[in-house]
Amino acid sequence: MATDTRRRQSRRVEKKRGWKDRLVIGSMIGVPTVLVVWLVWLPAAASVLLSFTRWNGFKFSAIEWVGTKNYVDIATIYPPFWPAIRHNLIWLAFLFVLPTILGMVLAVVLDRNMWGSRFYQTAFYLPVVLSLALVGFIWQLFYSTDQGLINEVFGSTVDWYGDSSVNLWAVLVATSWRHTGYIMLIYLAGLKGVDASLREAAAVDGANEVKTFFHVIFPVMRPINMIVLVIVVIESLRAFDLVWIINKGRNGLELISALVSQNVIGEATRYGFGSALAVIMMVISSVFIAIYLRIVFREERR
Q1: Which of 116, 150, 253, 256 is the 20 to 30 Å CA partner of 198?
Q2: Chain-wide mean pLDDT for the chain?
Q3: Are residues 209 and 105 in contact, defined by beta-carbon separation less than 8 angstroms?
Q4: DSSP string computed for 196-215
Q5: Chain center to CA of 157
Q6: HSE-CB for 133 with a 13 A CA cutoff
Q7: How far apart are CA 176 and CA 91, in angstroms?
């Protein structure tokens, strides 16, 4: 009799635990799912639908279906669009070449546990924690036409932020200053995770440090390289803050993200037109993300 009572009590405890476990698991899955659907998928779907309409953003009854007219107008009669595409591609190439390579070199040097490496890591990473507004102000001290350091040193009068022939490159240098520390930290973390026996085996085979890195270490860090590639693509597409602070993305600093803001929150308030620009930017970024996921899944199957 006592044994049966203990069994019943044990079953009740197991049922109670099972109910609590299901509640916890359901909450852990359900809450993030609701947030992602509400904050990501619904706005994305709404942007796609609005891209086929004309709407001033005030009354839902004023929404007018125009089909693909917004996309046609963007490609044919909207002058800033193609310069923005070109500038985004230049942004992508510049970030991929200069700060990525420089960040990798800094990570390799600092990974050797040189004297003062902690100080250098902090110094190189410090720009990452600064806001883009502060970054723009700091570089204004270099680029100012009247009192900027560059013009004072070289005796020139270049308007680095105002001249459309040079302001994009000036902004890219400022962005690279901030982006290099981020890439350095990612590669530094990847280098710390490389098995030390690989370096020892390469040294035994007579490989120098350069050959060891390119033939042994770099291939092992393939997942890190893919993460860096995705980060560079995302950063180049969502670049917005610095150009908006300088001149709201005009006069040589046209970017897709700035064009979206100009049409959605600017004086025009063309939500349909701005949504079409946002969809174009989303499609471009989705291509790179899809390539990344395909490579990752292929690696996992091996």
Answers
A1: 116
A2: 83
A3: no
A4: HHHHHHHHHTT--HHHHIII
A5: 34
A6: 0
A7: 10
Query: How many Å apart are CA 218 and CA 233, to the nearest integer?
Result: 20
Q: State how far Cα 164 lies from the chain centre.
A: 25
Q: Which residues contact 168 (CB under 8 A, 6 or more apart)?
A: 87, 90, 252, 253
Euclidean distance between CA atoms 196 and 111, whole angstroms: 12
d(CA 246, CA 253): 9
| Rounded Cα distance, 112 and 293, in Å | 32
What does the alpha-carbon distance between residue 250 and residue 13 come to, in Å, rounded to a whole number? 67
Q: Which two tokens mark 158?
A: 């270049």
Q: What is the CATH number of domain 81-253?
A: 1.10.3720.10
Which residues partner with 53 through β-bridges?
Answer: 65
Q: Three-state DSSP class for 169?
A: helix
| Domain-wise residue ranges, the chain | 2-71, 81-253
Angle among Cα 97, 120, 179 to the nearest 5 degrees reads 30
- Alpha-carbon separation of residue 64 from 12, 149, 164, 263, 291 (angstroms): 60, 52, 37, 17, 36
DSSP 64: E
User: What is the sign of the dihedral through the CA atoms of 174, 177, 183 and 189?
Assistant: negative
Question: Cα angle vertex 80, ends 74, 85, to 5°?
Answer: 80
- Lowest-pLDDT range, 11-15, 160-164, 258-262? 11-15
- Which pLDDT does position 49 carry in this prediction? 92
248/259 Cα distance (integer angstroms): 9
3-state helix, strand, coil split of the chain in percent (to 5) is 75, 0, 20
Q: Is 226 exposed, middle or buried (0-12, 13-18, 19+ CB in 10 A)?
A: middle
Residue 178, both tokens: 């901030």
